[in-house]
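In this section we walk through a basic example: taking a raw amino acid sequence and producing a predicted 3D structure, encoded as discrete structure tokens. The instruction is simple. Fold the sequence below.
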Amino acid sequence: LPSVPDRAQLGGHRDGVCGVAFLNDSGALLSASLDRTLRIWDVESGEVRQTMTGHAKYLTSLAVTPDGQQAATGAQDHDVILWDLATAAQTAVLKGHKDLVNAVAVNRDGSRLVSAGHDLSIRLWDLDSRKTLLQLGPHEAPIQCLAWSPDDRLIAAGDDRGEVRLWQAADGKL
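The resulting token sequence is shown next.
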């Protein structure tokens, strides 16, 4: 990565930032904000390379594929948007949640995405077909965070009541 000043600040969002991710060794950083924008920053210069919009309401979550080519954002509008980071274009809008989407996570090979939120459900998506493969849950409280196990066999979900559940990615069982 390029060298940056010790206290580099990237200013430009007009509201809180809910997610950040470095884009491999490209010298770029991605940020998602409550101002409904997704931005690609040049880390060294601090300049915005791209600003992307598409959600009707504020963004709540961000995930990037391991190759750094795609991002997924969840939002208060109940949708997950997939983005091509090379072109800064939306590639899909994944619909199915009935309330805000608090969390998104991509598996290690970039073929699957999980999303979850206030509707108490977790959706497992195929990123090639853009289809829901499984719906997991319900949880007993809104889900705040998600993670894949290193072998992509388990999905961990943490909720507002302090509970973490482990789901099998293959069949959706606890």
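Looking at the output, two observations stand out. The chain is about 0% helix and 50% strand. The chain has a mean pLDDT of 93. In the next section we compare this with other chains.
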